Amino acid sequence: MLGAVCAVTGILATQLFEGRDPSRVDLEHTRQRNNNARRRTDTDRWLRMRSDPGIAPRLEDPRVFDRLMEGLRRTGADEAVILAHDLARNAGNRFSQGAAITMYDLLVDSPEPRQIPVINKGSDGERVLTLVVPRELWDKLFVYVDGDRRLRGGLGLAELRRTAADRRNRSDLKTMPLFTLRGNEGLSYDRLYRQGKAAAVLMDLYRNDREFRETGVKRFVTFHLLRHEYVHSRMDAIERMDRKLWPVERKRLAAYMGWSDDEEMLAWYSAHHTRKNALASAVEYSKRIDAFEEVHERQKAFDGLEATSSEAYRVGRPRSLAERFPGI
User: Quick one: DSSP state of residue 27?
Assistant: First the structure.
């Protein structure tokens, strides 16, 4: 099947699309920015198979993130890698967005505490989205900057703040990535993937999906799955609100995530979320039934005991010798 798709693609590219792969470039629908017609890749879906509906599951174990973080610590992962995972789960960013964060974004461009401007797909480095970071994680980032990051060759927080206050030199902070393993060298995806995979393997965090059940091959939890977990946590919060607020909050979530097709992505996540709720309800119902049956079985066992006359337990006066031996 794959060979046939490649063959068809090659024929179309040769005869109809001037040598370009029609599954990757569409002149009519390619995204443009500032009237720049420079082609962008990966925008067309003509010859793509439908997305696997299982690629963004809501894992049933509520401790997946906690276990993954424990695995990172056990395997001795760098603090930058640990915080990058923490940020993805609690702020919903992609790796490319987290890796692009600089000290300028954190100390100068941040509109308010706990808010970090980030890039998005196709933004050419422009900060078009803003991550909202939990207070605890925000504090961890600054502890890391003045601790592990400084020890790796970076500047201390006090010196960085002085640079941020100097309008003439603050642009230097744009060359200093937040997540770094040595000085101003940014965190690579290869390092993050390898340490994240090691943590998932150690904690045996794999996807119990159809592929695993059919092949027995484990697909371990990845960094990107944490972004999905963030979306599901936001949808959980929305469902706890007044139903009248749902449409507005769902739009806010879509704008926050920076999806190119809000309605499609919301529908996609909602389908997974509904399945998660259905599975959770089924599990809860099964537990209730099991508990009921357990109580019922104990009651049946009790009722099944052979009835014994109460006379056997009655205590009366002792019989006299004359009653016991008549005729004496």
Answer: T
In degrees rounded to 5, what are phi and psi of residue 50?
Answer: -60, 150
Which residue type does 131 have? L
DSSP state of 177: B
* 189-202 vs 79-91: helix crossing angle, rounded to 10: 80
Q: Which one-letter amino acid corresponds to residue 310?
A: S
Rounded to whole angstroms, how far apart are CA atoms 183 and 177? Answer: 9
Residue of 98, 112, 102 lying closest to 163 (CA atoms): 102
The model's pTM is 0.69
Q: Which residues pair with 116 in a beta bridge?
A: 131
Q: CA 194, 197, 198: angle at the middle one, nearest 5? A: 85
Question: Which residues are CB-neighbours of 221 under 8 A, at least 6 positions away?
Answer: 59, 64, 68, 196, 200, 205, 206, 207
Which residues of the chain register pLDDT less than 50? 25-26, 28-50, 313
> pLDDT tens across 51-98, in order?
555 555 565 555 789 999 999 999 999 999 999 999 999 999 999 999
Is 24:41 a contact under the CB 8 Å cutoff? yes
